[in-house]
Amino acid sequence: MGVLTVTTLKSLTLADPSVGVAEFGVRSNARDGAFTPAPVKLRPMRDPDALIARAGVRGDPDRDQHFLVDDRVLDRLPTYLEDIEADTGHLLEIGGGTGALTDRLLAVGDEVTVVERDPKLAAFLCEEFREEVESGRLTVIEGDALEVDLPEFTASVSNLPYGVSSEIAFRLFPEKRPLVLMFQQEFAERMVAEPGTSAYGRLSVSSQHYAAVELVESIPKEAFSPPPAVQSAVVRAEPRAPDYAVDDEAFFLRFVKALFTQRRKTIRNAIRNTAHISGLTEPEAVVEAADEEVLRKRAGAMAPAEFAALAQLALETSGLESNG
Ligand SMILES: C[S@@+](CC[C@H](N)C(=O)[O-])C[C@H]1O[C@@H](n2cnc3c(N)ncnc32)[C@H](O)[C@@H]1O
């Protein structure tokens, strides 16, 4: 019996996607060395520069348009979902651009929805992926990702528009789905930061409230056209319940926000000074009830579970403004 060697082609890039499909086959080392094409046929991935040329656009930084042009990065992004065995039944992409990432998502997902605000790009995506749109595998939503209704997606992989990346991330987090999102490097570092580090803050606590977050890759500016001003980074968020319980999630997040506005102050003074943000009607009662050890800390040294315990205590000892 001959030894079988699977012939794989990680990424075959052709300028024109209509040129053909790549055939993946199994080569038998039997004496005749015959090549038997495997039953599956995989198509090559679209070339990102050719997509930009076909779309007839130049990325406009004022509209958060920095298109990924590095095939290796594009090919890797969906693999961060594979690593955690995420369900790729329905992938959501925010900011489709000229479709280089959309193409990779169609290769791994059963169904893909892409949201794109720029009407010209949304129309191009419909044209470029006409077959997938007609077969129902791809839905293009033209509109602002902060406003449109999002579908029931199983995971998202997106190179986010940086101007609204925080707002979009916090629209996606509560959906509790695996996310692979590109941010500015510094923002990504703040999301994943640990207590006691300079990058740790409100963003770290609120991101980690929803998911286990991990900075999986830094991406140089040259991977984009046009290159952004700063380096980027990919964050993978795997949803999980936090290791603490909070009765009022909205209050917890508001309380954390309030305390970090006074990060140089002790927690004691931060509670007192930020009632207008937290909505606490009796901040002094919270100070009286809390442990001295906690009150002496500063927000940057508080673990998420400590904020949660303090928020619970605050709810038990103080009222909340009715609009808080
Ligand atoms: C950083 S580019 C990424 C494009 C493409 N996914 C890629 O990786 O090459 C961000 C895209 O989001 C679009 N965009 C900007 N603001 C948006 C918004 N509020 N909602 C939806 N799309 C937006 C831009 O037009 C642009 O195509």
Automatic annotation (TrEMBL):
InterPro entries: KsgA/Erm, rRNA_Ade_diMease-like_C, rRNA_Ade_Mease_Trfase_CS, rRNA_Ade_methylase_Trfase_N, rRNA_adenine_dimethylase, SAM-dependent_MTases_sf
Positions with a binding annotation for S-adenosyl-L-methionine: 66, 68, 95, 116, 144, 159
Pfam families linked to this entry: RrnaAD
Domain Ribosomal RNA adenine methylase transferase N-terminal stretches: 73-241
An annotated Gene Ontology molecular function: RNA binding
Domain of life: Archaea
Enzyme class at the top of the EC tree: transferase
GO cellular component: a single term: cytoplasm
Listed SUPFAM superfamilies: S-adenosyl-L-methionine-dependent methyltransferases
Main location, first listed in the record: cytoplasm
EC number(s) reported in the record: 2.1.1.-
Keywords: Cytoplasm, Methyltransferase, RNA-binding, rRNA processing, S-adenosyl-L-methionine, Transferase
Subcellular location: Cytoplasm
Function in brief: Specifically dimethylates two adjacent adenosines in the loop of a conserved hairpin near the 3'-end of 16S rRNA in the 30S particle. May play a critical role in biogenesis of 30S subunits.
Family of this protein: Belongs to the class I-like SAM-binding methyltransferase superfamily. rRNA adenine N(6)-methyltransferase family. RsmA subfamily.
Stored NCBIfam families: ksgA, PRK14896.1-1
Name of protein: Probable ribosomal RNA small subunit methyltransferase A
